[in-house]
Amino acid sequence: MSAWEKLAALPREIVLTIVLIAMIVPAIRPFGLPIMVGKMSKDWYNTVDSLPEGSIVLFDIGFGSGGYPTLGPCAVAALHQMFEKHLKIIIMATALEGSMMYPLIMEKVKPEKNYGAVYGKDYVFLGYIAGAQTAMAAVLGDIHTAVKEDYYGTPIDQIPLLKEVKGPESYDLVAYLTTDGGIAEGWVYQAYSRYKLTVVGGFLSMMTPSLKPYYDAGALKGILDGIKGAADMEYMTHHPGDALRATDILSATQTIVLIFIAIGNISYWGARLSKKEGES
Amino acid sequence: MSEVVRKYIPLLITFIVGVIAVLDFYTTVPAIRGTFTVLKNWGIVVTAFALGVGAVNLFRVHGKRIAERGELWPLSGWLLFMLIVFVVVGLSTGKFDASWQYKWIYNAIMLPLGATMYSSLCFYMAMGAYKVLRIRNIDSLFLFLTAIFVVFGNTPIFPAAFPGFFYTREWIFKTIISGAYRGIRIGVGIGAVVLGIRTILGLERGYLGRA
Fold it and tell me: For residue A195, what pLDDT is reported?
């Protein structure tokens, strides 16, 4: 086996160890590399920013433990902005594990301590609502018949914030973060297509290409594109957190991947050309 | 069971529910809106009930595997054991954020495992990029160029240093990828409409199983 061929077939142990090192080093000692805020994140930020104080937002936690490292920071930064703007937030979960994500997120946002928000008046958590698009349609259509009590068992007719919700026209914004393609499209169908509500969505980066046509068509006013979107939001809201720290890891690992792609191609063509020379 | 019960009653229910759903979308008749609201709420209850059915089914499938000492049966045993642990702790100690016990087993087991499962994809992607993204012919050249510019655009440091990478990625997303996906979406949409009409009319009966 020639040197080119050896380089073209590096053992996976070597490749993955180098990728792992590229992950661990910036995690231990962040480089503080610069980032450029993306347009999709800026549009999410501006959409929320343009809402007047007291506007009602329906916020869906559509992810569980698998999506938490990416979408958890998105949710924290997005909620920081909403509480800062004194918006009224109705939080629900279309993901089964959403109820477990809620306290993890709120422990970081701390709405009472940081913004003086009052549970029930400024925000409420409805818990997991089964049924995906059926749940979305029911909550948007008539929340008072779809949900009888909040996550903590308080009847919803005793919650001041929910008394303000008369029908779909009461929602000024629908914001959701999800790892589920069906949920991601579902909000567009149920909130935008059905009621022409303003909708913003956040997804895993690998989902964004398939959902971007909705953004280009104006159905989604803004997108948080995975951990980079979360980092953008943390930067814009001045609440640096896990995502901004993760961008260094992203930069380091993806640079290593690019280097390996280059090695793969150079060695492939080196092996091919040297083989040809040997034959002639 | 008679054919009426197995076949015609489900078809009739599907027809009625389907027609009400369509009318609810296109009309503002209060009676239709009210009826469909009730149906949507039933949908939520039925889906929640299905979760319970799923758990029962899990016990049936894995219980059988354990009893027969089938392939990887210890893992089935572990699955059922953890299912019981989560249910017992959850039911006996209260809501998630009020129960430190449930919170602990979730945050110490489920959260890191879920995050690890997803994060481990990174290694497969790195290895795949090294092995597959090689310019072997003209087709792979196009794939290579697209992938390279998207990776450059997605890596935070490069667009920050050279904004051109960001705009190139945006152009690829907006023009090439969105164009292709728009076609797929329109095709899927038309297919869904046709499937919906066929289901309402009783021509599509796959959901009835063997009926």
Answer: 93
Segments in chain B below pLDDT 50: 211
Contact B181, A184 (CB under 8 A): no
Burial A185-222 (b: 16+ CB within 10 A, else e): bbbbebbbebbebbbbbbbbeebbbbbbbbbeeebbbb
What's the confidence (pLDDT) of residue B1? 63
| Residue A7 touches partner B, C-beta closer than 8 Å | no
Q: Is some CB atom of chain A closer than 8 A to the CB atom of B137? A: no
Radius of gyration of chain B, Cα coordinates, nearest whole angstrom: 26
ipTM score of the complex? 0.84
Q: What span, in angstroms and rounded, lies between the C-alpha atoms of A104 and A270?
A: 51
Residue for token pair 């009309």: B27
| Per-residue model confidence as pLDDT tens digits over A217-229 | 999 999 999 999 9
Which amino acid appears at position A246 of this protein?
A
With CA atoms as reference, the chain B residue closest to A266 would be B134
Q: CB-based contacts of B115: which residues, under 8 Å, 6+ apart?
A: A65, A66, A68, A69
